[in-house]
Amino acid sequence: xxxxxxxxxxxxxxxxxxxxxxxxxxxxxxxxxxxxxxxxxxxxxxxxxxxxxxxxxxxxxxxxxxxxxxxxxxxxxxxxxxxxxxxxxxxxxxxxxxxxxxxxxxxxxxxxxxxxxxxxxxxxxxxxxxxxxxxxxxxxxxxxxxxxxxxxxxxxxxxxxxxxxxxxxxxxxxxxxxxxxxxxxxxxxxxxxxxxxxxxxxxxxxxxxxxxxxxxxxxxxxxxxxxxxxxxxxxxxxxxxxxxxxxxxxxxxxxxxxxxxxxxxxxxxxxxxxxxxxxxxxxxxxxxxxxxxxxxxxxxxxxxxxxxxxxxxxxxxxxxxxxxxxxxxxxxxxxxxxxxxxxxxxxxxxxxxxxxxxxxxxxxxxxxxxxxxxxxxxxxxxxxxxxxxxxxxxxxxxxxxxxxxxxxxxxxxxxxxxxxxxxxxxxxxxxxxxxxxxxxxxxxxxxxxxxxxxxxxxxxxxxxxxxxxxxxxxxxxxxxxxxxxxxxxxxxxxxxxxxxxxxxxxxxxx
Length: 510
Known about the structure:
Number of domains: 2
Number of strands: 13
Low-confidence stretches: 1-11
Distance between the termini: 85 Å
Mean pLDDT: 91
Number of helices: 19
CATH topology of the largest domain: Rossmann fold
Helix content: 40-55%
CATH class of the largest domain: Alpha Beta
Strand content: 15-25%
């Protein structure tokens, strides 16, 4: 991709990050790849009505910022990021096509800019150097999830800042299931969540990346998709929401029945704009009936309210190109100052939870005034995790800590603090099966005894318990369990044959 041909002007750019970069240089490259496990273009082209041609797999053009050596190189201009957006779904485009796309986008989306302003903004020098030599070492991974239908570069300033501080940052565009535009529904959120997991897998192939330390930063709708991704992908170890839609679309989150506090027991930083009054929310019918954030009892949750930031100010593209009206009662300079503090809190959170940095954790837990935050700029509310989540994984860990004994007692202790905790029958059976295969019959029996206690009307549970007793040579209990199972499945030949065999063995011993 050709570099942006910047035109130098005397006019100042609208925005530059208020924070000094970190100790690393910032390298940048673009990976054009497909997720061949998912279809993006449907069989029939929606524009022409004709059969679709070419690659139909989901395109995931990935922007990669990484810690690099601080060597001389040609730094990107902001316009280079705009050019990258022109190839998000069609990788093979000419420079002329890309240039026209950028010009049209500026004209359509940022009509507030005159020609001089456009040249100034697009020509501004950035931190990143294309294909710079990587710094030595392994670095934590941050996946950036853009807002609804937005380009991957929408928060390039934050992404560059984090890379300069020792993070590999990956981002792809926000797209719907089969369209470039995102759909504001569960299907759209799950499509972006799957993109996030794809990037987590891709990160594992990067030589610099430490795949055991992954966080996802999501702006707006990306701050809902990252929650859905974390609920299903436990490679994700921390979440950041930049005025995320997990707050604004509670019905979508609630429809994702798997996105429970138990499955989201990971640290989270939520930075939100100035809240509306109850009266305004009531007028606009915005009062939610459900709040996932209020229920995340098993998470360290840092809720930061940014009083001088409207929604658009949480992404730097608006600060650079958007009109002043996007920032509500505040000036662009006031919003930019707050953006700088947003960056500081994001960095402190990531350093604390991905790098185990004690000073960063102290920063998070200190009053804003102690951190040097200007008065009235922001407030912080901290909720500490309340113990471990009641999950099958937690129960398995407790069982192991007891040297795989007294499972019923371990479950009883967990169910006292979480009365609704009841692992699925099939999940319990799947847990017990490897113990059977490894001939660890005592452990398997404890698991299947618990399964039968929780699911007394299940023939399947009775069968697995009978099998465990049988292999452990506990013939009397095996016969009783097989007989109980026949009460559910009277025609099961295997059970009848097993009872006959066990009785014969018992008679042979007399």
